Amino acid sequence: MVHVGIVGVGLVGSELLSQLAATQAKRLKVVGLTNSRKMIVSENYAPLSLTSWQQSLESSTTASDLNQFVKYMSSSPEHAVIVDCTASDAVSQLYPSWLSAGVSVVTPNKKGFSGSLDLYKQIESLAANLGGSTGNNKPLVYHESTVGAGLPVLNTLADLVKTGDEIQTIEGIFSGTLSYLFNNFSSLSADAKKESFSSIVKVAKELGYTEPDPRDDLNGMDVARKVTICGRLAGLDLDLSTLPVENIVPEPLQAVASADEFMAKLPEFDDHFSKLNEDAKKDGQVLRYVGLVDVKGGNSGVKLIRYPASHPFASLSGSDNIIKFTTKYFPNGLIIQGAGAGAAVTSFGIYSDLLKIQERVEGY
C-alpha cells in the first residue's frame, strides 16, 4: 500500500484524481490534498473520496500549511508519496526536506530538476533510485512528466544509461506549443496554407496552446529546462545560466509591458519570420525549434534549426513532441514521438510513476 498526498489540484491534479478514480487504484490511497488556500487530510489515513474531494476541500476550514502536510505524510504507517502538481519554484526547493523525512516525490514540476545544480544534486543524493542510499523503504523520486508529459522519454534515457549505452546526442522538439507553431508555419507541403507567423501565434493562443504570454514559449526557456533535465540524467552538469538559448521573440518586443501589447505588435515582424521561412524553403528545408544535448561535442543548446524534408522532425504534425536519442547501441537513432502536452497525458505520466513506486515498495 502507498499513501499519496497531492499538492496542487488544478488542471493536472484534478485530472490525476479522475484517472485514479476511474481505475479504482486500490493500492494507491489518496490521503491528503492541498492547494494554495486550503488542505484536507484523512483521519487515520483512510482514503479520501476521489469523487467528492472538491466539495471536501472547498468546505475545509484548515488553511494550507505545507509543513503540517509533510509532517502528516511522513507519519504515515505506509510508504508515503507527495505528488507536486504545481509549477512552483518555492515548492520544488522543499524536495530535499521531504526526502529527508522519508517521503517520496512524484512531479511534473521542472524547477527542481532544471534549476540550481546544487538542489539537483541534493535531490539525487537523497533519492534511492537516483543514486542515494538504497533500501525498500527509502524515498524515491520520479519525474517522467517533466519532459514530454506522458511520453517515456526519461524512463528510456535512464534505461540507456543504466545498461551502459553511450549517449551521443539527444535532439528533440520538446515544446508542443513551438511544434504547433512551426509545423503550421514552415511546411514544404503543396497543400499548406500560407499564413503569417503572428496569425498562427494568435490561433495557438486562442486554442490555449501557448502560455498566457506567448513570449514565455517563444523565449525558449521551457525547452531549455527540458534539455537541462535530459542532459543531467545523461551525466552532464548542464546549467540554465550557461546553456545557449535562442530567444526568437524579436528584440524590440522582449521588453514590452504586456502580452496584449506583444500580440498587437507581433504582425510588424511577420516579414522577419517570413524571410527565415522562405530562405529555408529555397534549400528544401523547414524551420523547427529544437533542443540539443550534445554529450560528446559539448554543443548543447536550444535554437531554431533548418531540416531537410527527409528528416523525421520535418514531417511532424499538430503539437506532437519528438525526441531522438543517438547512442552507441542506436547509431541511427531511437525516436520517441507523440503528444507531449496536456492534462490527460501529463497525469498519465504521473500515474505511471506512482505505480512504479508501488511496485518497487511492494516488491513486484
From TrEMBL:
Concerning SUPFAM superfamilies, the annotation shows: Glyceraldehyde-3-phosphate dehydrogenase-like, C-terminal domain, NAD(P)-binding Rossmann-fold domains
The UniProt record lists the keyword Heme: no
Residue limits of the Homoserine dehydrogenase catalytic domain? 152-355
- Record's keyword annotation contains Amino-acid biosynthesis: yes
List the InterPro entries: Asp/hSer_DH_NAD-bd, Bifunc_Aspkin/hSer_DH, HDH_cat, HDH_CS, HDH_short, NAD(P)-bd_dom_sf
Q: Where's the Aspartate/homoserine dehydrogenase NAD-binding domain? A: 8-131
Show the catalytic activity. Answer: L-homoserine + NADP(+) = L-aspartate 4-semialdehyde + NADPH + H(+)
Which residue positions are annotated as catalytic?
Answer: 226
- For this protein, the Enzyme Commission number is 1.1.1.3
Pfam families per the record?
A: Homoserine_dh, NAD_binding_3
User: What Gene3D superfamilies does this protein map onto?
Assistant: Dihydrodipicolinate Reductase, domain 2 (3.30.360.10), NAD(P)-binding Rossmann-like Domain (3.40.50.720)
Q: Which cofactor does it need?
A: a metal cation
Ordered alphabetically, the record's keywords are:
Amino-acid biosynthesis, Methionine biosynthesis, NADP, Oxidoreductase, Threonine biosynthesis
Instruction: List GO molecular-function terms, semicolon-separated.
Output: homoserine dehydrogenase activity; NAD+ binding; NADP binding
So, what pathway does this thing act in?
Amino-acid biosynthesis; L-threonine biosynthesis; L-threonine from L-aspartate: step 3/5; Amino-acid biosynthesis; L-methionine biosynthesis via de novo pathway; L-homoserine from L-aspartate: step 3/3
Q: Where does L-homoserine bind?
A: 211
User: Do you know which PANTHER family this protein is assigned to?
Assistant: HOMOSERINE DEHYDROGENASE, PTHR43070
Could you tell me what this protein does? Catalyzes the conversion of L-aspartate-beta-semialdehyde (L-Asa) to L-homoserine (L-Hse), the third step in the biosynthesis of amino acids that derive from aspartate (the aspartate family of amino acids), including methioinine and threonine, the latter of which is a precursor to isoleucine; production of homoserine leads to a branch-point in the pathway as it can either be O-phosphorylated for processing to threonine, or O-acylated for processing to methionine.
Q: Which family does it belong to?
A: Belongs to the homoserine dehydrogenase family.
- Give the protein name, as stated in the record: Homoserine dehydrogenase
Q: Which organism is this entry from?
A: Lichtheimia corymbifera JMRC:FSU:9682
